[in-house]
């Protein structure tokens, strides 16, 4: 006959082991919350940045659209026409430049590509802008000087000194300009062609009888 000890609580009801929660499982909801929070912050920042950039570019191309100036010939005078000296004739053509930009200044830069002055179909001078001129925004007009020198032939001097005949002349010049504002700056070369007629002698203040100027870029 065998003797059995009565079953204890621990043997009658064995303890069940509870599996430990993995760190990955417990951390997943927190990670999702962090990602969602980051998205909530990042997306509005991107949207606001896009709106600001679009507004700046819209402002730049509407209020600050760089328009080219318009030119007219306001005067011309010749020097070194008298006598038989070695110095070639010098021509000072004054262009009246009108700035159509109310919010942008224009600088007319010295030099540029070579300009020419012709009397009818005969070239009599070469040169360019001298000196540099700056035109502030809101300024209606400024004088821009084109200084040329060249042909000193006696027949040309005689025709230019004649105070009775009307002289048909053509000015071709490239005017380098810098159009500036706090928003944008733009540099361009303007091709200016002016066909004009002059009364009186060029040794003094010659009168512009008629003219037509065109500006291209």
TrEMBL record:
Q: Where does it mainly reside?
A: membrane
Query: Cellular component terms, GO, for this chain's entry?
Result: plasma membrane
Q: Where in the cell is it found?
A: Membrane
* Chain spans, region Disordered: 1-24
For this UniProt record, give its keywords in alphabetical order, as a comma-separated list: Membrane, Transmembrane, Transmembrane helix
Q: Which InterPro entries match?
A: NDR1-like
The entry's protein name is Late embryogenesis abundant protein LEA-2 subgroup domain-containing protein
Q: Which residues cross the membrane?
A: 36-59
Q: Which domain of life is it from?
A: Eukaryota
An individual GO BP term: defense response to other organism
- Check the record and name the PANTHER family matching this protein: LATE EMBRYOGENESIS ABUNDANT (LEA) HYDROXYPROLINE-RICH GLYCOPROTEIN FAMILY, OS05G0199100 PROTEIN
């Amino acid at each position: 006959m065998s003797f059995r000890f009565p079953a204890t609580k621990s043997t009658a009801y064995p303890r069940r082991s509870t599996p430990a929660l993995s760190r990955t499982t417990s951390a997943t909801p927190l990670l999702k919350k962090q990602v969602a929070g980051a998205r909530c912050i990042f997306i509005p920042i991107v949207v606001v940045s896009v709106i600001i950039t679009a507004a700046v570019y819209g402002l730049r191309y509407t209020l600050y659209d760089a328009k080219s100036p318009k030119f007219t010939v306001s005067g011309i005078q010749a020097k070194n026409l008298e006598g038989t000296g070695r110095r070639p004739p010098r021509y000072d053509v004054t262009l009246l430049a009108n700035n159509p930009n109310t919010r942008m200044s224009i600088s007319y830069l010295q030099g540029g590509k070579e300009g020419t002055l012709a009397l009818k179909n005969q070239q009599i001078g070469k040169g360019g802008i001298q000196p540099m001129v700056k035109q502030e925004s809101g300024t209606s007009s400024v004088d821009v000087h084109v200084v040329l020198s060249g042909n000193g032939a006696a027949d040309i001097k005689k025709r230019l000194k004649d105070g009775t005949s009307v002289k048909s002349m053509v000015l071709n010049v490239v005017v380098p300009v810098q159009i500036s504002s706090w928003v944008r700056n733009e540099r361009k070369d303007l091709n200016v062609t002016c066909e004009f007629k002059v009364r009186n002698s060029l040794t003094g203040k010659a009168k512009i009888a008629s003219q037509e100027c065109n500006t291209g870029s």
